[in-house]
Amino acid sequence: MERRAKWENWKKTQALFYRKTSTNYKKWEHFESSEEEVDENAEPILPRDDPNFRAMESDMLDRRKRRQRDRKEAEELKSKGNDAIKRGLYKSANKYYTDALELIKDMLPLYTNRALARLKLEDYTGVIDDCTRLIEYNEVFNDGFTKERDLCFKAFCRRA
Questions:
Q1: Rounded to two decimals, what is the model's pTM?
Q2: Which residues, including other chains, have CB under 8 Å from residue 142's CB and lie 6 or more apart?
Q3: Greatest alpha-carbon span in the chain
Q4: Which phi-psi region, left, alpha or beta, contains residue 136 (left: φ > 0; alpha: ψ -120 to 50)?
Q5: pLDDT in tens, 14-32
């Protein structure tokens, strides 16, 4: 009986506490905004005359150009590394892949390619580091291994 009384008292306290701290969302259905409706497709109002804004805009455009240039150069280095792997020049392939990764870090196939070159050079700790980095990247940013399934398979095999 004592435990039942404590339980009933606790339920009443929780109900009281919930009423004080919660929001009744049903009242929101009757809410009407007094402000004008905002057109979401309208052109944003930008401070074009502001020198700070112009500086920020030019910086953004410069960074975009630099990213595009770096991606293009990384693609070229990747193809050079692939050719070096085909010819059996594993040290130069490792260098090409490393240089490409310094330019752009989110090009995932570079990690498995460099892991292959390092595997041929018997740099096993480097292989493990590259494959682990690719696997962790996919876990965090690609919601597991389903998006880049083949790449993850290569990474798991080469790390093993």
A1: 0.66
A2: 148
A3: 85
A4: alpha
A5: 777 766 666 666 666 766 6
In this prediction, residue 38 carries a pLDDT of 60
Closest of 82, 84, 157 to residue 119, by C-alpha: 157
Instruction: Give me the pLDDT at residue 22, please.
Output: 65
Distance between CA atoms of residues 74 and 107, nearest Å: 9
Q: Where are the domains of the chain?
A: 51-160
- C-alpha distances (whole Å) from 20 to each of 7, 12, 27, 105 are 20, 13, 16, 51
Which residues are CB-neighbours of 137 under 8 A, at least 6 positions away?
Answer: 106, 108
Q: What sign for the dihedral angle of Cα 31, 34, 37, 40?
A: negative
pLDDT tens for 123-155 read: 999 999 999 999 999 888 887 788 888 899 999
What's the angle, vertex CA 92, arms to CA 86 and CA 97, rounded to 5?
Answer: 85
Is 78 within 8 Å of 116 (Cβ atoms)?
no
Indicate the CATH number of 51-160 among 3.40.50.720, 3.40.50.300, 1.20.120.140, 1.25.40.10.
1.25.40.10
Q: Are 111 and 126 in contact, with CB atoms under 8 Å apart?
A: no
Whether 97 and 121 have beta carbons less than 8 Å apart is answered as no
